[in-house]
Design goal:
heterodimer; A: mainly alpha; B: mainly alpha; Helix Hairpins; about 0% strand
Chain lengths: ~180, ~110
């Protein structure tokens, strides 16, 4: 059963990822990204990370992809890009070598180093359907709001800075435009 | 015997995340549209999140899932700022390829 879930999710992830880098239309690439993000959410559920799976669907597949599509439409760049031409000579073969080498190094590290992994935490609570409480969400909340509460508060500062910075960036500054027009 | 071999172990998930990371790297290196390059960076972030969750289950440690939560928040902030920069750059241009941004070219 878990093999079937893993196979389907892995297929979704890989098809979506290849779609992102091969589709010449930006909107199609963004929709392929949704497929990949849903596949990752399925694998989160398969590994008992239920809260993160919900956040993955809401934040990534919901908010971030909608933001991408919004910017694509706003800028009017939803036209087909010519992928046949290669702007820099020999860039693509070198990119193939780099990414395949990266995959090879990572896979070698995972296969050889997996024996060195040993359990070190207090354990992950598996959600129990009979009690009706989601143990994963409870445990994650206890971790965030006790041990990492300072990081959580700093995160709120980061979000405020990001929002204010984006508003400043995307706003037209009238005085500068007047100066340049003179 | 075969049924025991077909249970996905942590190595399967880690190899999948490595492949996803490699595909994202290839996309960032090859694609010329800044928006698609951003999507490939999202692919790489998701690969890392997947490996964090896998190792959280493998090591029986909830902190692996906690850091994925923070990575998601930082990724959301990064996308917002990045798309704001792209909008600010591209508003007065017709074409949108990374090769056209050559103002600093000496």
């Amino acid at each position: 059963m878990e093999f079937f879930v893993f196979g389907c999710a892995a297929l979704m992830i890989l098809v979506g990822a290849v779609g992102v880098i091969t589709r010449s239309h930006p909107v199609h690439a963004a929709l392929s990204l949704v497929l990949t993000l849903f596949g990752v959410a399925v694998l989160f559920v398969a590994q008992e990370a239920h809260f993160l799976a919900a956040v993955q669907v809401i934040v990534y597949a919901g908010a971030i992809v909608v933001l991408f599509l919004f910017v694509i439409m706003l800028l009017g760049v939803d036209r087909v890009e010519n992928l046949r031409t290669e702007p820099l000579t020999a860039q693509r073969p070198l990119a193939v070598i780099v990414s395949l080498g990266l995959i090879g190094i990572l896979v070698a590290a995972f296969t050889t180093g997996s024996g060195a992994l040993h359990e070190r935490g207090e354990g992950i609570n598996i959600p129990d359907l009979s009690t009706g409480t989601d143990a994963n969400t409870t445990q994650l909340a206890e971790s965030i709001f006790s041990k990492y509460v300072v990081a959580f508060e700093v995160t709120s500062v980061l979000l405020v800075v990001a929002v204010v910075g984006t508003v400043l960036l995307s706003r037209r500054i009238k005085s500068v435009e007047v100066e340049t027009s003179k | 015997m075969i049924a025991a071999l077909l249970v996905p172990t942590a190595t399967w998930y880690l190899v999948l995340s490595a492949i996803l990371f490699g595909i994202g790297t290839f996309g960032v290196l090859v694609r010329r549209n800044p928006l698609v390059m951003f999507m490939c960076i999202e692919l790489m972030l998701n690969a890392v999140n997947l490996s964090f969750v896998t190792l959280a289950r493998k090591l029986n440690d909830i902190n692996g899932q906690t850091i994925v939560f923070f990575v998601m928040v930082v990724a959301a902030a990064e996308v917002v700022v990045g798309l704001g920069i792209i909008v600010a750059i591209m508003r007065n241009r017709s074409s949108v390829t990374a090769d056209d941004l050559t103002e600093l070219n000496g």
